[in-house]
Amino acid sequence: MTGAPVKVEREGHLTIITIDRPEARNALDAEAQRLMAAVMDDFSRDDEQWVAIVTATGDKAFCAGHDLRQQAETGDLFTPESGFGGLTARANLDKPVIAGVNGPAFGGGFEMVLAADIVVAADSAFFALPEPLVGLAALAGGIQRLPRLIGTIRANGILLTGRRVPALEALQLGLVNEIVPPGEVLAAARAWADRILACSPMSIRATKQAIRLSDGKDCLAAMREEWAWPAMVAMLESQDAQEGPLAFTQKRKPAWKGC
Q: What EC number is given for this enzyme (predicted)?
């Protein structure tokens, strides 16, 4: 996608998605939103793509949310059906998404981070949901996800003020898995991807689906039900479920098929 506001690279089973609008602090206009949604659709459907990294160009911002300049000029606040960046409302994606936060993430950018499974951030990054400061609200999942992740009282201190949360505080709050120097974000995200790719993709999808479907359920009830959930059934019936124990007994790395 040369010249497009979103770049895509595929390296084996890894998809790297880069928002490339540094002149707009990587804010998403309508074109970028549509492209992000299409890229995430492709990743979701492609059985050979097992993990995705979402990052951005430069060190000025990961994503500044909606392109407010476009909104002011055209009134266009377009968001795909699959959510901001094609991610925040994509409820049934059972493949892992890693956010490589190379700079500040605010508004929809922060909401994309909240929708990710693993988060690596530059130590210079910060996170904010400043929508109330411009007459809006965090409507791409921030209102729902942030309280569930860190508790209502602490979330209120962010949602109701628009204040900035530095990377170290985000790590302490459990919003970030790892913080690294700015130039090392993508390398760190790749390292997380490599750890995931060392596992069977069938197991990873079953685990992520079970986490999602267990949310809000009684623990014992979820443990009983999980045996019938689609990704769990697929895992138990897969070639990978045979390959893993065989590779262990033969003292070699498994050759995962993803089926």
A: 4.2.1.17
Structural domain that includes position 31: 6-197
Looking at the chain, the number of H-run helices and the number of E-run strands are 11, 9
pLDDT at 32 over 60: yes
User: Does residue 80 fall inside a structural domain?
Assistant: yes
Report DSSP letters for 90-133, one per residue: -TT--S-EEEEE-S-EETHHHHHHHH-SEEEEETT-EEE--GGG
**Alpha carbons 150 and 155: distance in angstroms, whole number:** 6
Residue 209 pLDDT grade (very low, low, confident, very high; cuts 50, 70, 90): very high
Q: Is the pTM of this model over 0.90?
A: yes
Asked if residue 206 and residue 146 are part of one domain, the reply reads no
Query: Which tokens hold the place of 171?
Result: 């790590």
Judging by DSSP bridges, how do beta strands 6-11 and 14-19 pair with one another?
A: antiparallel
Residues 56 and 23 in one domain: yes
Residue 208 domain flag: yes
Q: Is residue 51 part of a domain?
A: yes
Same domain, 232 and 144: no
Region 100-121: mean pLDDT is: 98
Residue 228 per-residue DSSP state? G
